[in-house]
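Task card 7
Instruction: Convert sequence to structure tokens.
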Amino acid sequence: MSGSRRRLLPTLGSAPWTRAPVLLARAPAVVIAIVIATAILGIAAASGPLFLSAVGSATLTKQVVDACPERSLPTVSNPAVNDPNLPGQNYSSSQTGADVADGDTAVRAAMREAGLPDPYRVLTLDAPMDPAVDQVNATLTLYSRSDARNHVEVLSSSDEGRGAWISDRYAEVRDLQVGDTLAFASGSAPITGIYRDLAGEGIVSDLPSYWCSWSDLIVPTVERRPPPFVLVDPQTMYDVVPNLPEVALPPGIYAWWYSPVDTPALTVATAGTVLDQIDRLPYRGGGYQTPSDLPRFVSTTIDARDSIRGPVLPVALAATALALLLVAAAGFLWAEQRSGEVALLTSRGVSSGPIGFKAALEMLIPVTFGALVGWAGSIALVRWLGPSPLIEPGALSRAVQTVGLAALVGLCALGILAGLRSRRSVDVRSGRRFRWALLPWEIAFLVAAVLTYRRARAEGGAAAFAETISLNPLLIAFPLLALVGALLLIARLVAVLLPVLRRRSRRWPPALWLSIRRMASTIAVTLTVFVLAAVPVGVLIYSAGLTESLVQTVTAKAEIYSGAVHALDMEAEPGYDPDLGGHGTVVTVIRDGVANGQQIEVLGVDTDTFAQFAAWDPAAVGAEPEDLVPLISGTGTRSTAILVAWDGEDPVREVQLRSTTLTVDVVATAPAFPGLRLIKAPMIVVDRATVVDSDRYTQRQDELWTDDANLDAALLILDGEDVTVDLVRTPDAFLGVTDLLPIGWMFGYLQTIAALTGVIAVTAQLLYLAVRQRQRFAAFHLSRRMGVNNASHLRSLLSEVGAVLGLAWLAGVAVALCCVRLAYPLLEVNADFPPAPLFDAPLTLLVVSAVALVAAAAGTAVAAHAAARSTQASAVLRLD
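Output:
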């Protein structure tokens, strides 16, 4: 055994090392600082996998909730009459009551064996009517489900359990009431109840989700009105099934069994389990098993989650790196508390390795406890602030692994820092400039940022693939690199200027002189706090700026396409012009216009009401409505016009609408305009009066444009004139599609991480004041003896803390806004629709962050001043 090893083993076995894990109990301030720093480290490290899991759960839940409930449930239909030897053929239309009963037993047993919940059953039958009784409806739709009668508004009923419940609409048409009999082509059923018709009035119907899957049997469309919808019990349905042996495929019962899995509460992992259970059902192939949308939902969810995995990982890594710096800053506090003992051990020949190991042993318990707190805190934060509270067990275990690794790295960093401190390689008391050897690394960050931005510009900031819009990870990596590189260079400049300011401040007021002297004497700590404060400010402003720019752009695209908050197609004669009483405006949209040989959309507007209800974005259109709309006027087939998104060289003077020629005088142009819907095609806006009498065979549609406040009143007016509406376009429908949501969630995560790093900055500021606390207290009492009063001391602290945080805020905001200006043009999520990406500065967040900075600076300065005043001069000066 070598001599150095023989000396090392007795050293590590002596009291300072064996008792190290409990020594910090005598320094609660250090313990608290380390626990807080490590907890923040744990939150940052665990946030990545937990957030990705929450995104997956939220994406899956949204798809499930937006669809009809039965679309995502394990389903079996009509099993009793399917021939296993003829896959793909379904003789469901010939089922009788006996077939359904036999199938019911088999399906329930199969689902129970597969581990699925006991299903509920739905039966439907197109029951032929006796033509002598009902000459209008050839059939009635019979519907049976155990709790169906609990989901209608009962108008009248009898105590009979069996029988038919009809709608009030059908009862009024046939003059039927409870107690009468429905006569079918095969059998009859007593009427035991009347409910309010589910279809409502007109085409637009607010059908409850319970009935969503059966809307085609209930809600009329422009093309057809479904047969009357009748609720029956199973036996009543069995009794009226036609018996037509001479017909190959006679009308029969359709049966579905749905296993009521709690699909809105599924994660990707639990959804995979349900899919495995579905695969274990014996009814596979043919007409046995009705395909569920759940596999498609899961596939889309995985694609959406993977689309933001790239951007999320560098954010989580950057936050973890910042948190490690905070842990290192807590190590400065340990070094300050243990400076005397470290000096004693060093003087007795103990090398830096054993001292670093001793420091790691002392901080082992606080680091472990802080890591556990961080892991639990990250789970709570993601469930509270994340897109979904549902987190997969696998994500929890991955979070444990990342937190454990980060805590181990943090503990090693603390040990190394302590070892270096013992050799005086790192000295918080020195005011040395940064070593010039680090300059190439600082420049390397900026070079990497430039290269990353150029690569992102070449590839595009966003890409659409298979209904999923993914964000280029380089769009997140580039600002992080730029922030770090720029801030390190600014920190170097500050390190050069502080000694100069210290020399020149001797004739300045005492408060400024004291603050500059303190900052210059602890340059390393000062600049560490500067970087820790500036980075979260920069990340927060960048993420908010890019988020608000993205939201404004997508909102503008949606509003341009829709034209209004609500755009409804009216089923009426061409040129219909109702008196809406100020509750909306009517526009005419013609899609097949031709100008200069090019397809062009024609939008006819009522200039008196259009501006009030159009979804107008001045940033997208390039002008206010009062600047453009009054320019439109016309009579006959001639109109002044606004030409939108036109890239042709020849002027437009005529628009051909099949056999009608519309003469136009273009008085203004615009890059976008409400109602522009044709992909990569221009539009011309004219007076509606000039197109109402155009060729009736053009592809035209009269629409009602209105807002939330006037929608109901406008629909009431149309209903009074027997005009129905069909398709409803809203910007919210465009914004709410699943493929755009993960991007918004990702930027929300970025802002949350920025807020977390803001906590890091505040904690670092507190550590900044705690380092050399005894020297600060001694300096306070000495300055008091030199004539510096309490007010001057408080002003010195305010100027010291305010200068560090204020400079950090300015630097972070400046770099972040530059990055936003460079990045936002790359966020083109759909180039087919105008406008191009719009810039929106996060003014509210700028104000809020500045106010928070002022409050943090004032709070820490007042706290430090109060702590200094609470000490006794004799005790502090004796310690120093």
